[in-house]
Specification:
The protein has about 130 residues and is mainly β. Helices cover about 5% and strands about 45% of the residues.
């Protein structure tokens, strides 16, 4: 099992930056990839960025490419999302998740049902 806890959210002005963290514990179960997802009120949850455990390859949704960076610190069992040049449309609850499945980049960003473990979320508000 894996427990995920997000932190680092907050309220910032457009153009500002935030760094989200996702602390993982209970690493008895292996995971193939981890990702950040977000959900705005009244909207479906969407993939933001994913990083593969093997090789560390990272991929991003077109809407955040060039502005967000996903990374991990294996020693600290922590996943990060550096968000720069934030825009109002980035406002959402951000969740980190872990999946035990092997999958394509498209699947990793879109197939939420493949993620077994989810954090409780951290709110990001951009105005």
């Amino acid at each position: 099992h894996v427990q995920l806890v997000e932190s680092g959210g907050g309220s910032v002005q457009a153009g500002g930056s935030l760094r989200l963290s996702c602390a993982a514990s209970g690493r008895g179960s292996a995971h193939y990839c981890m990702g950040w997802f977000r959900q705005a009120p009244g909207k479906q949850r969407e993939g933001v960025a994913v990083i593969y455990s093997f090789g560390g390859s990272a991929f991003y949704a077109d809407s955040v490419k060039g502005r967000f960076t996903i990374s991990r610190d294996s020693a600290k069992s922590t996943l990060y999302l550096q968000m720069n040049n934030l825009k109002p449309e980035d406002t959402a609850m951000y969740y980190c998740a872990a999946s035990p499945h092997g999958m394509t980049v498209g699947q990793a960003l879109q197939w939420l049902e493949l993620y077994k473990y989810w954090g409780q979320g951290t709110q990001v508000t951009v105005s």
